[in-house]
Specification:
This protein has nine helices and five strands. By secondary structure, the protein is α/β, with parallel strands linked by helices. The strands form two sheets. A three-stranded parallel β-sheet has the order 3-4-5. The longest helix is centred in the first third of the chain and has 22 residues. It is globular, with a radius of gyration of 17 Å.
Length: 207
């Protein structure tokens, strides 16, 4: 397998992909460059391209996270979910989760957590159409720098209740909080969800 990755991808992530047996092909950190590089690989190697977020089967697979959340809420808490916060980049994870949760209970709130420096989902919801980055975003949450796709956007538009953005400082504080108090190692992209949970914007809007 071949994995097109932006040249700015952390070396530890590149090494991890290589460790799984894939060949990492570096490209510019834009959606257009990743698409072009992937298409070239498909043509050169007669390969099949699986989009990491916009593929319908990938989205369906991510829906199993929603099923697990519903089950764990019942088993561990003895009550139904009311709100779920999901980091958003290309939108595959939140699309799968939102589809399952809204089908189970339309009143469950699904909140997208996004870095303010890569706020295409926030702007897309605001304008009612897919908005791209005018230039490659710069954020510590490198896993959330991609844009919504043709399959994820309609789901985010219709099933995600809000997109809340957080600053790099908020992401850093959330990351440090989890490391220090929970003793759990997470990456900045995961900390974005924690940062939203702790943000005044989210907490002031709680029912």
């Amino acid at each position: 397998p071949y994995s097109p990755q932006p040249r700015t991808a952390p070396r530890i992530k590149q090494a991890a992909v290589q460790g799984y047996g894939a060949h990492v092909i570096l490209c510019e950190p834009t959606d257009e460059a990743r698409t072009t590089t992937a298409q070239q690989l498909v043509e050169q190697h007669n390969a099949h391209f699986i989009h990491p977020s916009n593929d319908p089967l990938v989205i369906a697979g991510q829906g199993t996270v929603g099923l697990e959340l519903l089950q764990q809420a019942t088993d561990l808490c003895g009550q139904a979910l009311d709100t779920v916060i999901v980091p958003i980049g290309g939108g595959g994870l939140i699309s799968g989760i939102a589809t399952v949760l809204k089908a189970s209970n339309p009143s469950i709130r699904v909140i997208a957590a996004e870095p303010a420096a890569a706020d295409d989902a926030y702007r897309s919801k605001l304008h009612g159409s897919i908005q791209r980055h005018s230039s490659p975003p710069v954020t510590s949450a490198d896993g959330l720098m991609t844009c919504l796709g043709s399959n994820t956007w309609p789901i985010v538009r219709d099933k995600v209740d809000r997109v809340v953005t957080v600053s790099e400082e908020q992401i850093s504080r959330a990351l440090r909080l989890v490391w220090q108090h929970l003793k759990v190692v997470i990456e900045p992209s995961a900390a974005v969800g924690v940062a939203v949970l702790l943000s005044d914007e989210f907490r002031s809007a709680e029912p």
